[in-house]
Design goal:
Largest sheet: 6 strands, antiparallel
Number of domains: 2
Distance between the termini: 58 Å
CATH architecture of the largest domain: Roll
Number of helices: 4
Radius of gyration: 22 Å
CATH topology of the largest domain: SH3 type barrels
Number of strands: 12
CATH class of the largest domain: Mainly Beta
Structural class: alpha+beta
Shape: elongated
Length: 184
């Protein structure tokens, strides 16, 4: 299985170095000299060197020794082959492919939907949750709102703040009010 670990940005200098937008929690492992990354289905790139410059990763790929050659790689996503059964070392970290498809429930046990996508934003990650008959919900992937992720049992428990799932709350209120009318 391929795991996205970065995206190539603009060139840095004239010798073929490139800035890379890191999308992994293991940049020193994934971008070590000699590692091979995939830029397309059939294109592999081998890292000659990598270093940090002003808080940004700068990578030089084998065979791309000038700025003109390096610029041809701009905006390509970089991925690595990983075993889908291997988990990150930290128990509070997850690969995207492990989260997609997990059922999402409230802490009360009420089913909300399932994770359709993990969205990586500059400030935090978001879980896109597909809900039957309702719009997709975006849940900030922070401990306060997502206290439990159980990959083994394919279940995520959320504790959203009031208003985050307005459409769901409106349906529950309407169903409750409808039940009262039927009893009268």
């Amino acid at each position: 299985m391929r795991l996205v670990v970065g995206r190539i940005g603009r060139a840095h200098g004239v010798r073929g170095d490139l800035f890379v937008e890191v999308r992994t929690d293991e940049p020193d492992l994934r971008f070590a000299a000699g590692e091979t990354l995939f830029a397309n289905i059939d294109q592999s790139l081998t890292i000659a060197t990598s270093k940090w410059h002003s808080g940004r990763l700068v990578v030089h790929f084998v065979g791309y020794d000038d700025r003109t050659q390096a610029e041809t790689l701009r905006n390509l996503e970089l991925s690595v082959d990983v075993d889908p059964l291997v988990l990150p070392e930290d128990p509070d970290e997850f690969y995207d492919h492990q989260l997609i498809g997990l059922q999402v429930q409230l802490d009360s046990g009420e089913l909300v939907g399932s994770v359709s996508e993990v969205i990586h934003l500059p400030s935090q990650d978001m879980l896109a949750v597909t809900r039957e008959g309702l719009d997709e919900a975006l849940i900030p992937f922070i401990l306060e709102f997502v206290p439990t992720v159980d990959v083994k049992n394919r279940l995520i428990t959320i504790t959203p703040p009031p208003g985050l799932l307005n459409e769901l709350e409106a349906v529950v209120v309407r169903d409750t009010e409808g039940a009262k009318d039927n009893d009268a």
